Amino acid sequence: MGTQRHFRIWRGDDETGDLVDFDVEVNEGEVVLDIVHRVQATQAPDLAVRWNCKAGKCGSCSAEINGMPKLMCMTRMSTFGRDETVTVTPLRTFPVIRDLVTDVSFNYRKAREMPAFAPPEGVAPGEYRMQQVDVERSQEFRKCIECFLCQNTCHVVRDHEENKQAFSGPRLFIRAAELDMHPLDAKDDRKEVAQAEQGLGYCNITKCCTEVCPEGIHITDNAIIPMKERVVDRRYDPIFWLGRKIFRRPGMPEKPADGRRG
Amino acid sequence: MTDIERHSYDVVVVGAGGAGLRAAIEARLAGKRTAIICKSLFGKAHTVMAEGGAAAAMGNVNPNDNWQVHFRDTMRGGKFMNHWRMAELHAKEAPERIWELETYGALFDRTPDGKISQRNFGGHEYPRLAHVGDRTGLELIRTLQQKIVSLQQDDFAETGDYEAKIKVFAECTVTELLVTDGRIAGAFGYQRESGEFVLFEAPAVVLATGGIGKSFKVTSNSWEYTGDGHALALRAGAKLLNMEFVQFHPTGMVWPPSVKGILVTESVRGDGGVLRNSEGKRFMFDYVPDVFRKQYAETEDEGDRWYTDPDNNRRPPELLPRDEVARAINAEVKAGRGSPHGGVFLDIASRRSADYIHKRLPSMYHQFKELADVDITKEPMEVGPTCHYVMGGVEVDPDTAAAAVPGLFAAGEVSGGMHGSNRLGGNSLSDLLVFGKRAGEGAASYVDGLAERPAVAQADVDAASEEALAPFAREGGENPYEVHSELQQTLNDLVGIIRREEELTTAVKRIAELRARVDAVAAPPGRKYNPGWHLCLDLRNMLLVGECVARAALERQESRGGHTRDDYPGMNPEWRKVNLVCSSSPAGDVDVVRQPMPVMPMGLQHLFDRAELAKYVTEEELTAYDAAPSGDGAADEEEEN
Ligand SMILES: Cc1cc2nc3c(=O)[nH]c(=O)nc-3n(C[C@H](O)[C@H](O)[C@H](O)COP(=O)(O)OP(=O)(O)OC[C@H]3O[C@@H](n4cnc5c(N)ncnc54)[C@H](O)[C@@H]3O)c2cc1C
């Protein structure tokens, strides 16, 4: 029924590791995750891999497949040549825990620093009124399944561990944009916070994040660029400038971050 | 055992899906130090997969909707096996719970006047499901996740520590509840990353662990669904209610094999999709059962008109409750009128524009395109039944979500009673919110009422750790993956959508044989993130729960909702009065007993026509109904809303 295919899967932990070869059966219609599971069931029962829904909805099974950041559950075997070796490695930007599982706590830490939705004062539950056209912009960003492929791909942090401190990454930029465009969010300094505390300025718009997003979210065009543009607008608005000087948020630097790093 | 990490909390919530997160929010708001424990990463629980929506009678699309109508639909859907009080609380409180999500930042799709939009779904009389395209579960879990983060930010502002009052232990699996003198004293588990053990000392535990689908071969459920919470509750001395009721969703993908079982949301039918057999016939018109005949269209024209004029037409039979549709599909395939890969056709391509489909069903479009090379705007899908949801679960007090063991609470899919013999689509997400909140409240006030906290017994901790390590000691034991796949096949074949006595008896026997094998599975060495070991431990739970399902299914000699007996077709009003309750000895021997179903107050009974009620209840019950003055109680309820 199936054909035999060649796989190379990275195995190891935070100290050492290597690619390990597996010859494994592949059947019609299967995805990479199916094959990883078959390896697990028949050859390497302790092969560590995260997964959950197997339908592209939970964003757990992120990995690099032949060097491309992808969801294993949505990568069909039919996209490879018959004799092509399929190499599966863990996300490079995050520390390995074991095999294909990485420590993605960076993303949760950054999420925790992101100011939460601020409900509008005086609007009772059940009284929220918003137009579909107005919620759609934010809804695009709320499609995010937190697979962190964008975070993994972004070269601001992919090759620069030192930037992780100051840079939150595309996942959090779309969160900032989502709240900024939320028709009823009561906070009005989302862009400034993104610039000053999340390192929006580090992004130099190479669009790598957008390319790998399995949800097809237009991260760069619809979130990052508008956020940057409006930050620029406001920075030269003298009234805003004044206000910003006087009511400076703690921890907000005097000078915006350099936009050309990374 | 000195190497065990110890934590002390007021309330420990096991599970980070909708129910667990909502419970944790409530416990934290009540001032309790709260831990959330989950097997996956934070934000990835099974709830994330929910598609269609959350049912709540807000009346935004059709102002005739109200809690009474929702209550009626829920009871009908469950074939009157629901705990009336749960169905009542759910119908009344669901709207508030949904509106509350907006204050946490949720963005539902809107009506033209800016309210939350609501869509049609099987068994719901009016458009009732709040939704976000077909990714409602994602919106729900993300919103709750972000609310937890915002509470942590409040705590940070106050104490300088994000985790002062609420902490998430992700990728941590609870393997045992610890009970001291009959009361909950804590929970024991392992961390996936390190493989190290962790002990939570806490007087109250809320189980919100979801379902059991991974015991079945064809399922829409994720790997997490190994029935842990059901098994933990049993072993702690709590009881499981009506485990025979398992929902097979009528529309799972059937091809290619690797995606068999993955869900095709009911919204496809709610938004105009129809089912056809290989002859192109809309066969559902042939399968409308008597109890529903008055509410469903008799012709295709009438059914089609309903989408735009629901006040003057009846709904198409594709939107019957799930059990009816699943059985119909099963029958068509058996009769040789199935699709090439053993399902039937679900067609929306010929009925709605490509634009409409893209807009309303984006993730279905994506799923079929990516996984099956099918463009659902151009061709029909092939679909068939898939194990989807367990109605049975931990027996709880409806108001507080308390289980039989003091200190133990349960909410969400792991709890039983709310959905009777069959859950309506959309009623789970709202259930999670309504009873998640109540469980958090219940746990908090239980803790407030305690004079003294039960102490964890060291012997219990030692026993739990020994049990968890046992698979490493079994050299040359069986491969857990193989045993798992046999268990799945057994339940699928013998305790599936259509059941009969011989098969169920065989299933019980096979499960007993499998038990010996589960006790002998061996884990590959190494405790660090070792899925082989994890599966060994999950198997124990899957087996115990599988046995409950098989035993209860054997016991109930009638067909109702998610339990269809070939040898006992049809509902039996006498059986409606009987709950089947499973318990387990510490050694894991399951016992099934019959328990009377709580009687619905007359005020609620009178929300139903006599003629309708007569289809479900005994003569005796009807006499009582006739004797009570009509409208009694119902009128008061009306005002309360
Ligand atoms: C594909 C699909 C679509 C659906 N669509 C809808 C819909 O449109 N509307 C609707 O109302 N319902 C829908 N449902 C049903 C609904 O999604 C589930 O019933 C519901 O999400 C269950 O939520 P929960 O909070 O009970 O548990 P879950 O969200 O499943 O969460 C369970 C949690 O418990 C944790 N856990 C389990 N065991 C342990 C353990 N031993 N130790 C520690 N943690 C543990 C898990 O890690 C997880 O965090 C759908 C279901 C599926 C499969």
TrEMBL record, chain A:
This is Putative succinate dehydrogenase, iron-sulfur subunit. It holds the Pfam family Fer4_8. Pathway: Carbohydrate metabolism; tricarboxylic acid cycle. GO terms for biological process: respiratory electron transport chain; tricarboxylic acid cycle. Residues 5-92 form the 2Fe-2S ferredoxin-type domain. It comes from Actinocatenispora rupis. GO terms for molecular function: 2 iron, 2 sulfur cluster binding; 4 iron, 4 sulfur cluster binding; electron transfer activity; metal ion binding; oxidoreductase activity. It comes from the Bacteria. GO terms for cellular component: plasma membrane. Keywords: 2Fe-2S, 4Fe-4S, Iron, Iron-sulfur, Metal-binding, Oxidoreductase. InterPro entries: 2Fe-2S_ferredoxin-like_sf, 2Fe-2S_ferredoxin-type, 2Fe2S_fd_BS, 4Fe4S_Fe-S-bd, Beta-grasp_dom_sf, Helical_ferredxn, SDH/FRD_Iron-Sulfur, Succ_DH/fum_Rdtase_Fe-S. Its cofactor is [4Fe-4S] cluster; [2Fe-2S] cluster; [3Fe-4S] cluster. Belongs to the succinate dehydrogenase/fumarate reductase iron-sulfur protein family. CDD domains: fer2 (cd00207).
UniProtKB/TrEMBL annotation, chain B:
The gene is sdhA_1. Residues 622-641 are annotated as: Disordered. Residues 484-601 form the Fumarate reductase/succinate dehydrogenase flavoprotein-like C-terminal domain. InterPro entries: FAD-dep_OxRdtase_2_FAD-bd, FAD/NAD-bd_sf, Fum_R/Succ_DH_flav-like_C_sf, Fum_Rdtase/Succ_DH_flav-like_C, SdhA/FrdA/AprA, Succ_DH/fumarate_Rdtase_cat_sf. PANTHER family: SUCCINATE DEHYDROGENASE 2 FLAVOPROTEIN SUBUNIT, SUCCINATE DEHYDROGENASE [UBIQUINONE] FLAVOPROTEIN SUBUNIT, MITOCHONDRIAL. SUPFAM superfamilies: FAD/NAD(P)-binding domain, Succinate dehydrogenase/fumarate reductase flavoprotein C-terminal domain, Succinate dehydrogenase/fumarate reductase flavoprotein, catalytic domain. The keyword Acyltransferase does not apply. Residues 10-429 form the FAD-dependent oxidoreductase 2 FAD-binding domain. This is Succinate dehydrogenase flavoprotein subunit. Its cofactor is FAD. Transmembrane segments: none annotated. Pfam families: FAD_binding_2, Succ_DH_flav_C. Keywords: FAD, Flavoprotein, Oxidoreductase. The keyword Flavoprotein applies.
